Amino acid sequence: MEQGAARERATERPSPPRVDPGRAGVAGTEAGRADGPAADPGLADASRVPEQARGGRPGAYARGEHTHGEPDAVGFPAPRVVRHSVRGQILDALRAALVDGELVPGEVYSAPALGERFGVSATPVREAMQRLAVEGAVEVVPNRGFRVVERTPRELAELAEVRALIEVPVMLRLARTVPAARWAGLRPLAEATSAAAARGDRAHYAEADRAFHRAVLSLAGNEQLLAVADDLHRRSQWPLLSAPALRHGVLVADAAEHTALLDALIAQDLTVVEALVREHFTGSDG
Asked: How far apart are CA 10 and CA 14, in angstroms?
């Protein structure tokens, strides 16, 4: 599905990052780059911090959930929260920005500049970026910040091959043993990918796609398998370089394959299951 368009994505260059006033965060990448101008101080306002960085809770930063610790409007020190909570929110926001293409492959971003845009100190941003470096999404540039990694066609193909080697035999085994009712229970997850695809929402599609695959593979009862497969899946999702018009069509086609796969699993049609999973990863049923 998402790997079925790997060859098309690898040859496209990303469109210029958009600036969405309602989703400040890292949408305006110029102010977040290491060599760019200073961030707009107004973007640090809590009402304009991206929802991902607030954990979906309006006004979280307005309530002092940051790491600056400066006095608030009435002169009292702003309350502090455990840093890893803020780091997790920033990590989610950065992951979404990577999938959406708002963090541009090849560009270098500094933690202090991004921190200004999120309304937090550089520390949770730096920690989140270090996590992304472990995941292979960015690389450390000493004394400058973090460069977004650009996947090569070969890297995408290798990721697709490894995912297929792991997931195809597991799904075939599950197709023989899991009752139809269990597969039918996964339809809401498949429908979630379709809804995100219809909206052209890459970030939510990426989350829904991983959730679907985790749910399928979890039926094997192997936690190590889940961890390895999820890491490979995430690495294959960024950066996504296709143009907006192409991306929407690819998302819709990919989402449709989730439903088709569930139908084949329910019917225990092993031939169709194998063909769909291979197509999902490699763009070939061979």
From this structure: 10
Q: How many CB atoms are located within 10 Å of the residue 269 CB?
A: 14
- Please give the Cα distance from 155 to 10 (Å, whole number): 10
Task: Tell me how far apart the 2 most distant CA atoms of the chain are, in Å.
Answer: 69
pLDDT in tens, 60-71: 332 333 333 333
Structure token pair of residue 252: 């819709």
Percent of the chain with pLDDT over 90: 44
Per the DSSP assignment, residues forming a β-bridge with 251 are none
pLDDT in tens, 84-93: 588 889 999 9
> Beta strand pairing status for 138-141 and 145-148?
antiparallel
Q: Order across the sheet with 138-141: list the strands.
A: 108-109, 145-148, 138-141
CA–CA distance, 229 with 194 (Å, rounded to integer): 22
Contact 103, 202 (CB under 8 A): no
Bridge partner residues of 140 (DSSP): 146
> Which 3 state secondary structure label does DSSP give 276?
helix
